[in-house]
Design brief:
This protein has about 260 residues and is mainly α. α1 crosses α5, α1 runs parallel beside α12 and α5 packs across α8. The chain has 12 helices and no strands.
């Protein structure tokens, strides 16, 4: 469910005629509003017991999620959906590298799997390197989105063992939305004057990618490792490429 929801994220956001930061803000703000009613009864008690370290980790996760959306949504405006999704899905590489820095050495089979993943990304995105500097910039922003997504997943896994999905989700989305709103205000980004088609795309990405994508991932963080989740998210690459080909005329290369 999370992979299918996430696969729709790139095409929907790329097809929305709105600034990248505004799209990121609205999907998180609407996601917060949607989840809040289900968190009213449990969130106050659970969040009160988080403590200073727990709140610091939650704040970090929310800010990393905001940086993830800021970089990835911008990447979708600069390069193809397939390339941007492939680069951001390289979060699995960053998860393993961060684990290594913390003293957790990955088995050789995992390293081999990462090598195959990187090879796949090069096949999918290699065409962009010869197209334009703008596409290359989009690829690099997508990679930055993968790093921040990895940090978001790893921080969230520490918090989710102590609070429920709804409590964590409503706070994390709320922090992310506030961070992006501040960025929009500082950058004087248009936030409301959009067409009906764009608002429909924003609502669609909120339902598909935010509620059925990120919220399901937040639930899984309590029972699955960030590395396994990041590995499964590689399946979003072909999903997003197929949807972009069908609805945005972005036919993926033969590779």
């Amino acid at each position: 469910v999370a992979v299918l929801g996430g696969s729709a994220s790139g095409p929907l956001m790329a097809g929305a005629s709105a600034p990248a930061l505004a799209i990121g803000f609205w999907r998180n703000a609407l996601g917060t509003i949607a989840v809040a009613p289900f968190a009213i009864s449990t969130a106050p008690g659970e969040l009160a017991g988080l403590g200073r370290n727990g709140w610091r980790t939650t704040l970090f996760a929310g800010v990393m999620l905001a940086l993830h959306f800021g970089t990835w949504c911008t990447a979708l405006k600069m390069t193809s959906v397939a390339a941007a999704t492939a680069m951001v899905s390289m979060q699995v590489v960053f998860v393993v590298l961060i684990d290594r820095l913390r003293g957790d050495i990955a088995p050789r089979s995992v390293v081999a799997g990462i090598g195959l993943a990187i090879a796949g990304v090069l096949v999918i995105t290699g065409v962009d390197f010869s197209l334009s500097a703008r596409a290359l910039g989009g690829d690099l922003l997508g990679l930055a989105g993968g790093l921040t997504a990895a940090l978001y997943l790893m921080a969230g896994s520490q918090v989710r063992v102590r609070v429920s999905t709804t409590s964590y989700t409503v706070v994390c989305y709320g922090i992310c939305a506030l961070t992006l709103a501040l960025a929009c205000l500082v950058g004087q980004v248009e936030m409301v004057d959009f067409t009906a088609r764009t608002w429909l795309a924003i609502v669609g990405v909120t339902i598909c990618a935010q509620l059925l994508g990120h919220s399901v991932l937040n639930h899984l963080l309590a029972v699955m490792s960030p590395g396994l989740i990041a590995l499964l998210l590689l399946l979003e690459v072909p999903g997003a490429a197929i949807l972009a080909g069908l609805f945005l005329d972005q036919s993926p290369p033969i590779g």
